[in-house]
Amino acid sequence: MTGPDAIHGAAHSGYRGRFAPSPTGPLHAGSLVAALASWLDARAHGGTWLVRIEDVDAPRCVPGADEEILGQLAACGLTPDEPPVWQSRRTALYQSALDKLVAQHRAYPCACSRKDIEEALRALGRERARNEELVYPGTCRDGLHGREARAWRFRVEPGVVEWHDRRLGAQRQDVASEVGDFVLKRADGLFAYQLAVVVDDADQGITHIVRGEDLADNTARQVLLQRALGFATPSYLHTPLVLGANGEKLSKQNGAQALDLSDPVAALRGAAQVLGLSVPAAASVDDWLRGAVAAWAATPRA
């Protein structure tokens, strides 16, 4: 699709995609890669593209960053087809999903602090390597044993979760042994990302998820929640990451600078290079985006 609908989307496609930034600061080069890829995939499919502000983790959010992000996207021609939504306004949906999981005995209260978990793992002879997942040992699975509940966890049953990524191919994870029962509602009363994103994607009818490769490791947990809640599992595509000087994912923590949008086409061109797209030169954002949609559509993705 390379006509007007390549820019504005088609009204009747069943494809629904989204870009879901956390408002912890302005967009940087890495986040533009994910935004552009999700937009291009929606346009190439003649679909609908949404923006969801993932501000469920309120302590990390920066006041005004949400509106700044929306302005940055608009400057790059990436305008959502429906009004944006904010996770902080959707907590009733998350609580309803948690209540359903509790009723199914798939969620249970947990009294453990991070220190408790680390001590329990040490007692089991399972020292955690640096940056390794802190695997929950199941301390509260059978009750709180007189302690006060701090959080709510999802009960993970044994077995390997398999899923397919359109770029990375076949994926598999043994969530029980590699993650353990994971948090749905935190000790501070905030809902965890895993639950919120699954509920939002289902509520918004998201059929295709295009996001950064750093989130691929979350997918198996989200598939388990989708199955437990009776939701369909979307198609996944995880994009290449922009790396910082230290070789890790570019982020605000390792010096990522806000996007320089004095020349939006130049910023988009940089994101396209990370995605492996060769887009013809263009004077305007709209013309460049048309070429980018054609380039994306011409690249095979499983």
Automatic annotation (TrEMBL):
Its EC number is 6.1.1.-. One of its GO terms (molecular function) is zinc ion binding. A motif ('KMSKS' region) lies at residues 249-253. It comes from the Bacteria. Its cofactor is Zn(2+). Pfam families: tRNA-synt_1c (PF00749). A motif ('HIGH' region) lies at residues 21-31. GO terms for biological process: glutamyl-tRNA aminoacylation; tRNA modification. Catalyzes the tRNA-independent activation of glutamate in presence of ATP and the subsequent transfer of glutamate onto a tRNA(Asp). Glutamate is transferred on the 2-amino-5-(4,5-dihydroxy-2-cyclopenten-1-yl) moiety of the queuosine in the wobble position of the QUC anticodon. This is Glutamyl-Q tRNA(Asp) synthetase. The lineage of its organism: Bacteria, Pseudomonadati, Pseudomonadota, Betaproteobacteria, Burkholderiales.
